[in-house]
Specification:
Blueprint (H helix, E strand, L loop, with lengths): L1 E6 L3 H11 L5 E5 L11 E2 L8 E2 H13 L3 E5 L3 E6 L4 E5 L4 E9 L3 E3 L15 E2 L2 H4 L7 E5 L3 H11 L4 E5 L9 H8 L4 E4 L2 E8 L4 E8 L4 E6 L2 E4 L3 E3 L29 E3 L11 H19 L6
Parallel strand pairs: 1-2, 1-8, 2-5, 8-19, 10-17, 11-12, 11-17, 12-13
Antiparallel strand pairs: 3-4, 6-7, 7-8, 9-18, 14-15, 15-16
This protein binds flavin-adenine dinucleotide.
The site of flavin-adenine dinucleotide has 38 residues, from helix 1, strand 2, strand 9 and helix 6.
């Protein structure tokens, strides 16, 4: 039996595991893919105190750091259910194994919803981007598009308009869904064009990087090309919490609801990082939240009745 079992091996889960192991308690990590979203990331320039790194390199550093402690890492394993028992918590893995722990920290992260159009995968990190906070500065003085007219798309367009030379915002619907105050701000900016009722068809490129975006005007069924250097996809961030929907309280967007200490609705179960309701999904934030949830779990453990 574990004292702390961490589900997820991204920045949040790694931080949680290190904080738990440093208390000298029996700690395990179950991860479908150690590193999480870092494994899909190229340049990282906002991990404070490290001027520049790359996702796989940071993953290696995280793994090395976790492995300096006595942590049982179960990589390439997926959790599929969680139950509260009289004695603690049970986590069921996809391979059928049941792991028992006194406390659990869920840090299963999230994934960006993709457009599923030609060129999107091919030019990922070569012009196709998902995170304006991360990659915005790489497009300084260049032309970009933002796909999606919800709050995140319009926020991204406003943010990017201050850095890049021009932003084209593409919305599928005939109207933007973002809050009115954001829309007003967007329309006040001189270097933003908004195109509504448009279906993105393809991320165009020259083999090594993005050169344009092709879309269909849904009213006239005509195709158009916007020449640009970057495409920011902002059509949703999906938390990896489908496996929890019958056991733990989630927000309408599927994010795990957490308290100040990272507690979830299930006693002894904590959560941290991109899978939670905590806003602004970033590496440094996920790590901080992982540390916090781990200290929350320790606080819980020292209050358990002596058997
Ligand atoms: P994740 O990194 O998503 O890790 C989740 C972990 O849980 C993984 O190990 C996964 O395999 C595992 N998992 C999921 N489901 C299960 C399950 N059922 N059972 C077991 N394990 C499971 N942020 C920045 O701060 N700077 C950047 O420059 C930056 N660039 C980015 C570029 C890209 C392309 C992407 C996609 C993201 C970027 N981000 C960046 C965001 C950053 O990667 C995330 O905020 C961060 O990784 C979140 O950490 P996390 O631990 O919460 O989740």
């Amino acid at each position: 039996e574990f004292d702390v079992l961490v589900i997820g091996g991204g920045p949040a889960g790694s931080a949680a595991a290190i904080y738990a192991a440093r208390k000298g308690i029996h700690t395990g990590v179950v991860a479908e893919r150690f590193g999480g979203q870092l494994m899909d990331t190229l340049g990282i320039e906002n991990f404070i105190s490290v001027k520049e790194t790359e996702g796989p390199k940071l993953t290696q550093a995280l793994e090395q750091h976790v492995k300096t402690y006595d942590v049982d890492i179960m990589n390439l394993q997926r959790a599929k259910a969680i139950h509260k028992t009289d004695h603690g918590v049970e986590v069921e893995l996809a391979n059928g194994a049941i792991l028992k722990s006194k406390s659990v920290i869920i840090s299963t992260g999230a994934r960006w919803r993709e457009m599923n159009v030609p060129g999107e995968k091919e030019y990922r990190n070569k012009g196709v981007a998902y995170c304006p906070h991360c990659d915005g500065p790489l497009y300084k003085g260049k032309r970009v598009a933002v796909i999606g007219g919800g709050n995140s798309g319009v926020e991204a367009a406003i943010d990017l308009a201050g850095i890049v030379s021009h932003v084209t915002l593409i919305e599928f619907d005939t109207k933007l869904r973002a809050d009115a105050v954001l829309q007003n701000k967007l329309y006040s900016l001189p270097n933003v064009t908004v195109i509504k009722n448009a279906l993105t068809k393809e991320a165009l490129g020259n083999g090594s990087k993005v050169t344009g975006l092709q879309y269909e005007d849904r009213a006239t069924k005509t195709e158009h090309v916007v020449e640009l250097e970057g495409i920011f996809v902002q059509i949703g961030l999906l938390p990896n919490t489908e496996w929890l929907k019958d056991s733990i309280d989630l927000s309408p967007r599927g994010e795990i609801k957490v308290s100040d200490k990272g507690e979830t609705s299930m006693p002894g179960v904590f959560a941290a990082g991109d899978c939670t309701t905590v806003p602004f999904k970033q590496i440094i934030i996920a790590m901080g939240e992982g540390a916090k949830a781990s200290l929350g779990a320790f606080d819980y453990l020292i209050r358990l009745e002596v058997p």
